[in-house]
């Protein structure tokens, strides 16, 4: 009987060992699947973040290009208007200056929504300077003898270009262009 009990005990132990081994193997496989799932999820999230960053970068880049183009056009329109007043002494063509101002204003609004906050101060300063210059040009156009004002406006336009170049440099830095 001892041999029978020993055989039965051995069979029970073998069976329990087999079951325990299967349970441990299954548990290990489950952990491996969970780890793989977490790694895949982290990879998907990292890829989505990278795509979002790339999309935001392209959005900022496009906005900066449009803003700088509109700003150059606006400043150039004001310069052209000032030169016309200086050389010919009559009203400037309203459409080109006003249209350039409208386009600039639209692009400035986009910049305010797109650019990081560190660029807002510089862009707002440039915007105020452009507004002052615009109203000076309009005032000169209405003046019957704008000669003195034209000289002051010509000096002020040089400051506009400096402010524009400073902002342009910061926009380029934001995009990683040095």
Automatic annotation (TrEMBL):
> Which residues fall in a compositionally biased region of kind Basic and acidic residues?
31-42
Q: Where is this region: Disordered?
A: 30-51
- This protein's source sits in the domain of life called Bacteria
Record's protein name: Secreted protein
Q: Which organism is it from?
A: Cryptosporangium japonicum
Taxonomic lineage of this organism? Bacteria, Bacillati, Actinomycetota, Actinomycetes, Cryptosporangiales
């Amino acid at each position: 009987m001892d041999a029978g009990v020993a055989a039965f005990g051995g069979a029970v132990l073998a069976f329990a060992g087999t079951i325990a081994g299967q349970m441990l193997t299954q548990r290990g496989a489950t952990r491996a699947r969970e780890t793989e799932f977490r790694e895949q999820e982290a990879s998907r999230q990292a890829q989505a973040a990278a795509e979002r960053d790339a999309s935001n970068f392209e959005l900022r880049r496009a906005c900066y290009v449009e803003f700088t183009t509109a700003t150059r056009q606006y400043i150039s329109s004001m310069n052209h208007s000032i030169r016309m007043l200086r050389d010919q002494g009559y009203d400037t063509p309203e459409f080109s200056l006003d249209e350039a101002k409208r386009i600039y204003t639209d692009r400035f609004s986009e910049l305010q929504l797109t650019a990081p906050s560190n660029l807002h101060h510089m862009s707002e300063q440039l915007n105020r300077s452009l507004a002052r210059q615009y109203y000076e040009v309009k005032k000169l156009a209405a003046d019957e003898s704008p000669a003195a004002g034209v000289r002051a406006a010509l000096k002020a336009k040089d400051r506009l270009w400096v402010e524009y170049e400073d902002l342009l440099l910061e926009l380029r830095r934001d995009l990683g262009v040095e």
